[in-house]
Every structure is written in C-alpha cells, then in structure tokens.
Design brief:
Layout: E1 3-4, H1 7-27, E2 33-39, H2 43-59, E3 62-68, H3 74-86, E4 92-95, H4 105-111, H5 123-131, H6 140-151, E5 160-164, H7 171-180, E6 184-188, H8 195-201, E7 204-207, E8 225-228, E9 232-233, E10 239-240, H9 245-248, E11 254-255, H10 262-283
Helix pairs in contact: 1-10, 6-7, 6-10
C-alpha cells in the first residue's frame, strides 16, 4: 500500500509557521491584509469567500472586501484594482474568477500589480516563475504541489518528473518550479501518444489533466510518487481526482488523496502569499 500524502499534515505545519510570521509582522505595526474582489452573488463565490475569511482569521490575517454588482462595467472593476494597488494597508488581492463575460479577463489581470498578485494570475508573476526571479507569486496550486513534496521530504533534484497537463495555472508553472529544483521534467497531456508509458517513466508524477479518473492503474508502476491535482464531483456526489485512486494506490509508493490532498494545501498557500507580501512591504516600505 502507498503512503497517503495527506494535505492536513502540510497545512498544520504551514499554519504554525504563518502564525509566528504574523505575530512578528504585527509587532512591527503591520497586519497582513487580503483584499477580496468579487463581482455578483454567486453561491460558490460566497461560500469560498466565507471559507477564506475563516482561514485568514485562524492565522491572524485581516480581510478587506470589495464587492461589485455582477453587471458592473469593466472600468469599475479596474478602478477597484487600482485602489487596491495604491492601498499600502492591503498586501495581496484575490480576484474571484471567472469574470462575467462582458469583462476582459486579460485586461483585469494586467491591471493588478504583481507584488499584490497572491494567486499568480498576472504576466509578471508568471515571468517570475519562469525566470526564477522574485517577482509576484506562483499560482497557488502549483506551489501547493511543491509544498507537499517538501513537507514529506521528497526531493525532486536529479529525479525524472512527469507533469500531465500544460495549463498556465498548474502544468507549465509547476514544471518550471520543479526544474528550478534540479528535476528533469517531461510535460505531457491527454493528446500525448502512448501517455501511459510516458507517465510510467516519471519517478514523481504531477497529474493536472482536468479529466476525472482518466489515469488508471496501467499508467503507474512501483516506486512512484503521485500528486493528483484534479478534483471532480462524481455521479454519486462524491469527489475524485484525475487519478483512479483505487487502482493507483496499491501500485505506487506515495499518492495524494482527493479530497484532502492538494486542494487542502492550496487554500493556505494563498494566505501564505499574503504574509510574504506583507513581509516584503516591511523590508521595502
């Protein structure tokens, strides 16, 4: 049986560190503050916002809310983003997406300062990831994968890593982050020829295919570490990942569960980025 890489253990370690970091910042007169920018009253957005506020409170991070009507003009949203950019007391911004269809997503992402882009959505943040320089923040899910590997002592240096998925949200940025840790990385996707054989080559496999349980037992071999980024709702209402856990778990060395794996860590990486942004503010007021 595989070692199950539970996200809760990673979160517990992150929370303890974050609490100490927040205390140190408050001692210097700075309260790390997250700005949440939301358009409309979608139930899933409100639910996520409520959870984010609770998680922020658990480590001492403050939250400021910016709520617009769903039919607000793009210029109104840009005005809010410029307000957040200029507010020295708001250290990071989280823009709820997808945006309404009448608003251009590229324009909105370009308007946010990279240093306040805690979700890694701006071109500046992605440039920082690809160039391995301190600019903005990596996409939170990609960094959550790295945090899980680090917490469980799985060093990618010198290892062959297969990344299934090529999106700018997970696949490509996590591949770059792994390369910066001296891994040899292969990026593939659902249109890769003989995908199972390519996946089996990886000592570490990051799966962000975006399709429920698409990677079955034939994709895996003994000794592999599998990080499953996907999360999907099954017909019976349960949750599953991109990997068919019941088939992979008896074969591989270690694997993240769904739920309770990458997703659990991602939500706290967002808050970690707010704290890092506040720390940067103290260092460079």
């Amino acid at each position: 049986m595989a070692q199950v890489l539970k996200g809760k253990e990673v979160v517990d370690a992150l929370v303890e560190t974050m609490k100490k970091d927040v205390e140190a910042l408050k001692a210097k007169g700075v309260t790390p503050t997250l700005g949440i920018i939301r358009l409309g009253e979608r139930d899933d957005d409100i639910s996520y916002e409520r959870g984010a506020v609770k998680r922020c409170a658990s480590v001492g991070v403050a939250v400021k809310h910016y709520v617009l009507q769903a039919d607000a003009a793009g210029e109104q949203l840009l005005d809010v983003i410029h307000e957040v950019n200029a507010d020295r007391n708001v250290h990071g911004a989280l823009i709820f997406r997808p945006l309404p269809k009448h608003i251009d997503d590229n324009t909105v992402r370009a308007a946010l300062l990279p240093e306040k882009d805690i979700d890694g959505i701006t071109g500046g943040s992605l440039a920082g990831v690809f160039a391995n320089i301190s600019m903005g923040f990596p996409p939170c899910t990609a960094e959550a994968c790295m945090s899980i590997l680090a917490h469980y002592g799985i060093d990618p240096a010198g290892k062959r890593v297969t990344v299934v998925g090529r999106s700018m949200v997970i696949g490509r940025p996590v591949a770059m982050m792994l390369m910066h840790k001296d891994a040899t990385v292969t990026i593939c996707h659902t249109k890769t020829k003989d995908l199972p054989s390519v996946v089996r080559e990886g000592e570490i496999v990051i799966v962000a295919a975006g399709k429920a349980e698409t990677l079955t037992g034939e994709y895996f071999r003994e000794g592999q570490t599998v990080i499953d980024v996907g999360i999907h709702v099954k017909e019976d209402g349960g949750l599953c990942g991109d990997v068919k856990f019941a088939e992979a778990e008896p074969v591989v060395k270690a694997i993240t569960p769904v739920p309770g794996g990458v997703g659990a860590v991602t939500t706290f990486v967002t808050i970690q980025h707010v704290i890092e942004a506040a720390r940067s503010f103290v260092a460079h007021p």
